[in-house]
Design goal:
The protein contains 9 helices and 18 strands. The protein is α/β, with parallel strands linked by helices and 384 residues long. The strands form 3 sheets. Strands 17-16-15-14-8-13-12-9-18 form a 9-stranded mixed sheet. It binds nicotinamide-adenine-dinucleotide (NAD).
Length: 384
């Protein structure tokens, strides 16, 4: 029988949307059901979480529903327990940097949702403290593990596209205001004082997606907007929505690639998926959504003729070929959790660390600055 090691994880913010669904249920509970994470030497790591939050009733019910024995409303006491080596945070953005610092001071390894902080200074402070303490650290970069983007990366790596020219990303959907229909995202997302805003939320993601798949980001021009200034919260109370709910950004990447990404909570979807990336290269093009990816080669490119007097004779959607599934694609959050747990025990480099997280915050901060000052902002190299 393979040796089983216990990994005590202090999980904060698991009653929230991401913490509960993606990190607890789809990742940690699923890993536990499957007998833990296999290490290089054949041993297995079994996560043993303690759920932390403010509402004892919610925590108890959540723990019970998923066969978890430990929960608490006392984070400080949990951090004192030497048997729990890892701190995880998926609670609200505004509190993250402070909590990470506390956990690092208590000698814990840390893993967390993005953004790691509300500004670069705090993000780098956390990364420096982690380096000094010699702990292991990771930040969620889930989009890299989406089947659609993994297929797209394979298409690019195969050389199919030739020289990359441009990327057009469309992210978003309509988030209900809360008067006519219940809201489907937390109201803090639309309040600046609570760490809300789509630029801080989404440019962190676009940094690692662009850097890892298309080319390092060199500069950004971003126009934000608050299209809907009044919303209704979880209790049906109206509030002033002062955070940006849409961002229209252009990025210059290494290798001369130009990327444009629209991020919006104020758009109604008519496209292949909630996020799509359309990439054009000299030898071929590709479009990726969350799960799927389609390609069109140079020799399969149709010849449209501009004629507004007739209905479009080409069914453009039919001129693309789908990249087939050739493997099982697990939930992306779980794949990254497993990689991080292996990193804790097997060692070796972990690419998606606090510095990578700080780079995400750097791009968000530059996007906000660009909007405010109405100009391009260059992205300088970051060092811990
Ligand atoms: N990786 C992704 O794709 C992705 C998607 C959405 C959100 N996120 C990130 O995940 C984090 C959580 O977002 P969410 O959408 O799940 O939010 P949410 O509001 O659903 O959850 C937030 C959690 O934090 C807790 N919390 C809020 N205020 C607190 C306080 N003052 N003290 C203690 N706990 C408090 C809440 O109880 C809840 O458990 C954010 O940082 C967000 O940026 C990541």
């Amino acid at each position: 029988m393979a040796k089983v090691k216990r990994l005590g994880i202090i999980m904060n913010g698991v009653t929230g949307r991401m913490g509960m669904n993606q990190h607890l249920i789809r990742s940690i509970v699923a890993i536990r059901k499957d007998g833990g994470v296999a290490l290089k030497n054949g041993a297995r790591v079994m996560p043993d979480p303690i759920l932390i939050g403010r509402d004892a009733g919610k925590l108890e019910a959540l723990a019970k529903a998923h066969g978890i024995e430990r929960w608490s409303t006392d984070l400080d006491a949990a951090l004192k327990n030497k048997d729990d080596e890892l701190f995880f945070d998926a609670a609200t953005t505004a509190m993250r940097a402070g909590l990470l610092k506390k956990a690092i001071a208590a000698g814990k390894h840390v893993y967390c949702e993005k953004p790691v902080a509300e500004n670069v200074k705090d993000a780098l402070d956390v990364a420096r403290l982690a380096k000094k303490a010699g702990i292991k650290h990771g930040v969620v970069q889930d989009k890299l593990f989406l089947p659609g983007l993994r297929k797209l990366k394979m298409v690019i790596d195969s050389g199919f596209m030739g020289k990359l020219l441009s990327v057009r990303g469309e992210f978003g959907y309509w988030v209900f205001e809360g008067d006519l229909q219940p809201i489907q995202r937390p109201s803090w997302n639309y309040r600046l004082k609570d760490g809300g805003g789509i630029i801080l939320d989404m440019l962190c993601h676009w940094r690692y997606v662009l850097d890892n798949i298309f080319g390092e980001v060199q500069s950004v021009s971003c126009l934000g907007a608050t299209h809907i200034p009044k919303r209704w919260d979880e209790d049906g109370k109206p509030y002033k929505a002062d955070a940006d709910d849409a961002a229209y950004a252009t990025f210059q990447l290494a290798g001369g690639v130009i990327a444009q990404i629209n991020s919006s909570w104020v758009t109604r979807v008519r496209r292949d998926d909630l996020v799509t990336f359309h990439v054009d290269g000299t030898h071929g093009s590709a479009v990726a959504g969350l799960q799927k990816c389609w390609t069109q080669a140079r020799v399969n490119t149709p010849k449209p003729v501009w004629n507004p007097d007739i209905p479009q004779p080409i069914d453009f959607m039919q001129t693309w070929e789908e990249v087939p599934d050739t493997q099982v694609y697990d939930n992306g959050f779980r794949v990254q959790w497993e990689a991080f747990i292996r990193h804790l025990y097997d060692g070796g480099p972990f690419k998606w660390d606090l510095l990578a997280g700080a780079k995400g915050v750097q791009l968000a901060e530059a996007g906000l600055k660009s909007w405010k000052e109405r100009r391009w902002i260059d992205i300088e190299p970051l060092k811990v």
